[in-house]
Amino acid sequence: MTLQRADRRPPALDSAELDAVIAEIAEDARRRRAEGGGRPERALELAREHLLGAVRIPAEAGGGGYSMREFFTLAIRLAEADPDVPHILRGHFGTVEEAWRARDTERGQLWLRRVLAGKIFGGAQAELSGQPGVYTYDTTLVADGENFRLNGRKFYSTGSSYADYLRISANNEEGRQVSVVVPADRPGILHAGDWDGIGQRETGSGTTVLDDVLVYPDEVGEFRRIAEPGKPRSPQAHLLLHAIGAGVLRALTAETADLLRRRTRSYSWGNTELAREDPQLLAVIGSLASTTFVVEAAVLTAADALDRAYRHVWEHGRADDALERAASLETSKVKVAVEKIALQAAAEAFDAGGASWTRASVQLDRHWRNLRTLFSHNPTVYKARVVGDVVVNDAPLPGVGFF
């Protein structure tokens, strides 16, 4: 099936084009940090221009044809350049997977055409209010003649202020959950810009206000958050957080190595005159580099399990429950295993530089803050409990979206 002209495709993973895009994203991030911050607008322009949002669509349909391992490798590289960028695109990538699974439907075709035109999808799902543990929303979709009106407030709406289209969850007049997809600039949609997290500061993860937003009937779709037999679990979004973490560790390793390499002062009780030759300081960097390797390897191993599960859905039109369970379980194990060692490594990196590396101008602390923010998405202790229950009691995985 052909959805896009062959003269415009996403770059290959090992291409000079992609190398140049990532280098420009990294340079833009360095410039914005030096200037005191700012949104990664240029990075999102590059993502649209080079169709980075379409890398998972098969090549024969005009996409990049990336495997899951290749996709997560891209995510790690993007995160090394600027961890906000793949986080902004997190909801978009999930939408692409859904669109390809529904490629034989009018809705799936529409989404795919938009993705292949460089458009970006964002999400506005979570609310600060609502009943704990229950998928119900204060945001409402009510009839207005032949159309509908959407009203409410969403928080944690990551990427929404950068997006071309928004996926928004709501309760309809019957109390059932629905999902709507509307243009992000439709009248009545306001992006408050009030995200004040300690890390991932430019992901646009704050409030989206919905004030009497017009919604057409063909923009209303199915809502599904509970896993069902024969349906994909889609733990991709959760593994992506840890791919971003691997990219953060890559950047931290490179920065600390460069700082140590350029350091002219040494401790009076150190082992060598040059800090870069001190075996104890080198051991700090060596430990950090090794942790980075382990985190990245864990992410890519789980990506292979995801690939097996997703390919089965693509080829057979139905999920294999055993493959889905394996992919979800491996993703959960990654979360449980890597978070403590990653945070510890980000803290111990300062041991190679001492007080001079704690200056605000060095900005080394941003890596720990970014990791802490990423890893706070769904509690690790619950993931560990579920993994243990599976190992000991062969318990089923929970049916909610965290798994």
Give a short overview.
By secondary structure, the chain is an alpha+beta fold. The chain has 11 helices and 8 strands.
Description of the structure:
By secondary structure, the protein is an alpha+beta fold. The chain has three domains: 104 residues, Butyryl-Coa Dehydrogenase, subunit A, domain 1 (Orthogonal Bundle), CATH 1.10.540.10; 82 residues, Beta Barrel (Butyryl-CoA Dehydrogenase, subunit A, domain 2); 158 residues, Butyryl-CoA Dehydrogenase, subunit A, domain 3, CATH 1.20.140.10. Helices cover 47% and strands 11% of the residues. The chain is built from eleven helices and eight strands. Strands 1, 2, 3, 4, 5, 6, 7 and 8 form an eight-stranded mixed sheet that branches. Helix 1 packs antiparallel against helix 2 and helix 5 packs across helix 6. The chain is globular, with a radius of gyration of 22 Å. The mean pLDDT is 93.
Q: What keywords describe this structure?
A:
403 residues, alpha+beta, Butyryl-Coa Dehydrogenase, subunit A, domain 1, Butyryl-CoA Dehydrogenase, subunit A, domain 2, Butyryl-CoA Dehydrogenase, subunit A, domain 3, 11 helices, 11% strand, globular
Topology (elements, then pairings):
Layout lengths: L15 H19 L6 H9 L18 H14 L2 H5 L1 H12 L4 H11 L4 E4 L15 E5 L2 E8 L10 E8 L4 E7 L5 E3 L16 E8 L4 E2 L14 H27 L16 H38 L4 H28 L16 H11 L4 H14 L10
Parallel strand pairs: 1-4, 2-4
Antiparallel strand pairs: 2-3, 3-7, 4-5, 5-8, 6-7
